[in-house]
Amino acid sequence: MQKNPFVILGVDEKTVTQNELFEVYKELRDKYSKLRFAQGEEGADACRKLDEIEAAYAEATEILRSRYDISTYGDSLKNVEDAIKENNLEKAQDLLDAKQTRSARWHYLQSVIFYRKKWYGDALKQLDFACQMEPDNTKYTDARTALINQIQSDTSKRSFYSQTNNGEERSYRNMPPQGEVRGCTPCNCCSSLICADCCCECMGGDLITCC
Fold first, then answer.
1. Residues 133-187: tens digit of each pLDDT
2. Which of 91, 123, 88 is nearest to 109 (CA)?
3. Nearest to 93 by CA among 104, 77, 74, 73
4. What is the value of pTM for the model shown?
5. Phi, psi (rounded to 5 degrees) for 201
6. Domain 5-72, what fold?
7. Superfamily of domain 74-156
8. CA of 46: how far to CAs of 33, 38, 43, 49, in Å?
């Protein structure tokens, strides 16, 4: 049976605050960090305790964060998630816009809406905000990393190619249409020089001295 993370840390689950939780976690971590270098079973037990404390703190923090979101923002953000699942992006956006306080979760949901609309740059900016506000939230950081990889992958695939309207790759972007030749070729090199020479002579110069 999995242990209650608050019991492991020795705090009251109903009354503890995030700051109090962090202080207790820091004290326990410092205590067992010193003991882990002890010889024999004492050092091994301290290492196990450190792993247990780290896992308990991460789980307890997530629980407190979820409770804070629910108590502060009520069901509105859950309604946003439901609207997104239904692909009703306009409704989801209206619900988000109605909130005056914008938490990390708010920015995350905004990024999801932008992503669904394929506005990847805007989605990445919102994920940046979410990660800055909650840097330890792996859900946000993983989503940001995945989006960056997707953007880079799409850019590399399309960097030298343009696409047709139906998504199929076609010729290089800077290639002229089939049958059309751009620039100076061996066939029109002489005519180009003669034209240039005429222009020079009109202005008092001489590009080709033999004619």
1. 888 888 899 999 999 999 888 765 443 333 444 444 443 344 444 444 444 455 4
2. 123
3. 77
4. 0.43
5. -65, -35
6. Helix Hairpins (1.10.287)
7. Tetratricopeptide repeat domain (1.25.40.10)
8. 7, 9, 5, 5
In the numeric block, which tokens belong to residue 15?
């009354």
Domain ranges of the chain: 5-72, 74-156
Which token pair is 136? Answer: 């330890």
Among candidates 115, 109, 149, which has minimal Cα distance to 129?
109
What is the residue whose two structure tokens read 């076609």? 170
